[in-house]
Design brief:
Layout lengths: L25 H8 L11 E7 L2 E9 L3 E8 L12 E2 L6 E7 L6 E8 L4 E4 L6 E2 L7 E2 L10 H10 L7 E5 L6 E2 L5 E2 L2 H15 L3 E4 L3 E2 L12 E5 L6 H13 L3 E6 L25 H4 E2 L4 E2 L6 H16 L5 E4 L2 H5 L21 H17 L4 E4 L21 E3 L1 H11 L10 H5 L1 H4 L5 E5 L11 H4 L4 H17 L3 E5 L24 H19 L13 E5 L7 E7 L4 E7 L5 E8 L4 E7 L15 E2 L10 E7 L3 E7 L3
Parallel strand pairs: 10-13, 10-23, 13-16, 16-19, 19-20, 20-21, 21-22, 22-23
Antiparallel strand pairs: 1-2, 2-5, 3-6, 4-5, 6-7, 6-9, 8-9, 11-12, 14-15, 17-18, 24-25, 25-26, 26-31, 27-30, 28-29, 28-31
Helix pairs in contact: 3-4, 6-8, 13-14
Length: about 650
Amino acid sequence: MAKKTTKPEEIQIVPVLVEPFSLFTDFDIGLFKSGKHYRLYEKMGSHVLEKNGQSGTYFAVWAPNALSVSIIGNFNGWNKSSHNLMPRWDSSGIWEGWIPNIGNGEVYKYAIKSNSGEELEKGDPFALRWEVPPKTASIIWDTWYEWKDEEWINKRKDRNSLKSAFSVYELHLGSWKRDPSDDNRRLTYREIARDLVPYVKDLGFTHVEFMPVMQHPYEPSWGYQITGYFAASSQFGSPQDFMYLIEELHKNDIGVILDWVPSHFPNDSHGIYRFDGSALYEHQDPKEGYHPDWKSYIFNYGRYEVRSFLISNAMFWLDRFHADGLRVDAVASMLYRDYSRKEGEWVPNMYGGRENLEVISLFKEINQEIYNSFPDVQTIAEESTAFPGVSRPVYSGGLGFGMKWMMGWMNDTLRYFERDPMYRSFHQDEITFSTVYAFSENFMLPFSHDEVVYGKNSLLNKMPGDEWQKFANLRLMYVYMFTHPGTKLLFMGAEFGQSAEWDFRFSLDWHQLDYDNHKGVSNIIRDLNNVYKSENALTQKQFDADGFAWKDTTDRQNCVLYFCRKGEQETVYIVLNLTPVPRENYLLGVPEEGNYIELLNSDNKDYWGSGQMNELMKTENIAMHGDQYSISLNLPPLAGIIFKKKKE
């Protein structure tokens, strides 16, 4: 926790010490009230600054239904009557003022008396730092940091583009790694940087995605119940410590995606729920303002001041923390008014429909502003329905996201691979269907945290068969994932085949990397990332139907699939043997005469496979799969092979 600058016993209470002062211009107020202020964090909250040569802190808070607002903290003995803010004259609902002789490190809250007489103590919605839970006060702080990631920022356009390799390692800061020698203690941001950066770099991931790092009081929410939207979680250190972690990732050519949660917030008494005694940030009507799944509250997306708050928050993390993208949580729950609600439990839109028109316009506005101000970043929607144009530009009628999670692919793929190979021949459509719609959006293929909790089992233990077959199936599924059109996301632990489900209370089972079978999974992930990054055929047209073609989906009896990925110059071929039966001298059609080489074979002994590899494969004048030539190769059991024509 930050150092407090004043001890309560030293305080002498003098009423009305707040001096009039404002960072707001009339133009700012106009933008705020019209939902168009995209940098509210520069004005709202607490800001240390000088006035007439004296240092102090300026406070500004939106509480239009308050009768009075004062600042309370250690510096005034938490006295509600000594430091009263003043309401602005312009009906904006903003209370503000400047207090001398307090600065960074002071804890504070707003004491609010509502127009109904209710007395509340609230943290600052724009606080840049908070006390460590279970304490709930805000802390005066700043986001000054001397960044040293210019090299990354200058080349981010190429590393972050839709034609680049985009392989994301998703992790939860509190459980990626803990200190077993110190009572299972969480690591700090700086300790995580020390271990995470070389680990991710070695495995070849291009990006990391942090599950919500914003201040949250309840650890079992995994960060998805946020009370401090503008503060990095104090459980791991200061905002500058988190900036250091991001900077170290950038220095090692690793981008950073942050999980962003504009869909709901909790009702903790110190948070934004009923902030001034009224439904300020949320809807008054529970049919619109209460989320039945998460027992939390939904933002009033049609209220202009709330829109300014949300858009400013998205911009804040890209601006002050140099994030390279935002993964927006639970987009489907926001787009539909009847999401997870029964008949009679929801309010139709003005046309009688189920679409949330205010959310649709908000997403368009957010994405337009983000890409206008930060054209090299990406926004990624977790959206599970067939809502049209999620990742299409606003000018063509889309929502404007850069990418969308391909939830259908994830569900179909896991359902298929969970099947006993004996029955897979009857379900080949499950694994080929995704390409029917694969190019309707810019899809990211996610195996996320949601697939390995609540009794769903780990990815490894979803696989059927004995121990060898489980690992072989997992490696095979990863080959399919990394060669399927779209970008990639893998949740922590899956990269070495962790056996147990994820548990946010404990570290990953790092000891499993001492075993060859788990080490083999780690090895193939490293090599798949390297192939994905080095072969342009896998990235240049990853969202374009011209970049993919099925070569053969008809061999249902043997459960063999054959397809190719096309770049501007080269083609890469992929064959999958989805049963534990090896296929010797299997013919595959190829369009060009010459020699073909394996880029990766998931049966490699380095991956804990059986080692049935293929040496140089020469073409034969045997027409196959619509091609003039063919090659003969051995298909190992439960294995995927990536190959291409050797350059002469």
